[in-house]
Amino acid sequence: MNERVRRIESLLDKADAAATELVAEVLGLYGEGLARVMALVGDEAAARLGADELVSPLLLLHDLHPLDTRTRVEQALAGAADLLSVEGDLVRLRFRPTGCRSSAAGTASALRDAVREAAPEIERVEIEVADAALIPVESLTVRPASRAPVP
To answer: In sequence order, what DSSP letters do the residues of 134-146 get, joined into one string?
Structure first.
């Protein structure tokens, strides 16, 4: 789907004004048709359409998706990070790394990708990396159990 969108954008960059106007009109017509479809189907069917990998981006394009941005982002994160806020085209997240610090960059990149996939209208993703809870070194040593005197 993303490749098709990139191809269309590339072709539009080279198109003359009449071709661009034609595409805008066709896009508007499809948007009106999708709006009618969404108005006719019930909540359950709308949710299924919103979850479809081909239909979902079309609904987003026409601002017809049944789920709001915040809900889509929360579902994409699936507990991997805390959603702090959604403000316009900005999402703020916080996550606590579970491995070494060097893996945090990879996790942050994966989180950004998940947010952008679920909510293409989001242009910026700010990620706060929370400090991992440290285990005190003293607790890692083995202490012999104290023995009670044997009578």
So the answer is: PPPGGGGS--PPP
